[in-house]
Design brief:
By secondary structure, the chain is an alpha/beta fold. It has 6 helices and 6 strands, in the order H-E-H-H-E-E-E-E-E-H-H-H. A 4-stranded parallel beta sheet has the order 1-2-3-4, with helices on one face. Helix 4 runs parallel beside helix 6. The two termini are about 25 Å apart. About 40% of the residues are buried.
Length: about 260
């Protein structure tokens, strides 16, 4: 990360990395933990290595086995960090939940994943088809297939933000998370849940919202407040606000 940020000017990254706790036979009590690596990630997002970074992270595939459970509380470290954007996998053809994606919450009750993206397919060729490191194309399933999709959309949002607001600072990680969550298509239970997060991402809706300017970035410290006015048009059927922040890394490695 230090090399990418300081020597190459990277501003967003995809990470298909995790402990794979259940498949690897690690202690099941690891699932839901925050941990030292999560603390490190949260610091990188906030700029500990020289500049803020937008980090997208695969939420994991712990439910591919029932060794550590096959429903909730199956998100393994370091997907339980606070600041990165965790991505669950849906079937691309019908937005249904895949059989393997990890479900939250974290041990301290936070929703995981944050959002979801296509990571498999329940018909057709049965997966996400893309280029392979060994040459040609391959078809696979996993949150490691969903996370790059979300990261690519995130890169396009950053690019459009630069074009639309050339004098503004680079979009914050928390702003990117908010745009993806706010414009996601709600699936499953009404509102955010620990299967889909805030829902299935919608790139066009996110770009339209960005270009509409209905977002705000600011900074506040502990015990400070910030006030602003929002005018809701008469007759509006719904008013929705989504807030996110890039939090300080936790000192207690278990929370």
């Amino acid at each position: 990360y230090s090399d990418a940020i300081n020597n190459h000017g990277a501003v967003i990254s995809n990470n298909s990395i995790g402990t794979n706790t259940a498949p690897n036979g690690f202690p099941c009590e690891w699932t839901g933990d925050y941990g030292v690596t999560s603390s490190l990630i949260d610091g990188v997002v906030r700029g500990d290595l020289g500049a803020p970074m937008r980090i997208v992270w695969a939420n994991g595939n712990e439910r591919q086995t029932d060794r550590c459970g096959n429903l909730y509380f199956t998100t393994a470290p370091p997907a339980c960090a606070k600041n990165h954007i965790t991505v669950g996998a849906m079937n691309s053809n019908d937005d249904t939940v895949t059989y393997f994606k990890s479900w939250g919450p974290s041990d301290d009750g936070r929703i995981k994943p944050d959002i979801s993206a296509p990571g498999c397919q329940s018909d057709g060729d049965g997966g996400v088809t893309s280029t392979s490191s060994s040459g040609g194309y391959s078809t696979k399933c996993g949150t490691s297939m969903a996370s790059p999709t979300a990261c690519g959309i995130g890169a396009l949002l950053i690019q459009d933000h630069r074009n639309q607001y050339p004098d503004a600072p680079e979009m914050a990680n928390s702003t990117l998370k908010t745009l993806l969550a706010h414009t996601a298509f709600d699936e499953g239970n009404v509102g955010p849940d620990c299967q889909y997060g805030y829902g299935s991402i919608r790139s066009k809706a996110a770009i339209d919202h960005l270009r509409g300017g209905s977002f705000l970035e600011t900074n506040i410290a502990q015990n400070e407040s910030y006030n602003f006015l929002i005018v809701v048009p008469a007759g509006a059927e719904r008013f929705q606000v989504t807030a996110a922040w890039d939090d300080v890394p936790a000192e207690d490695r278990k929370t």
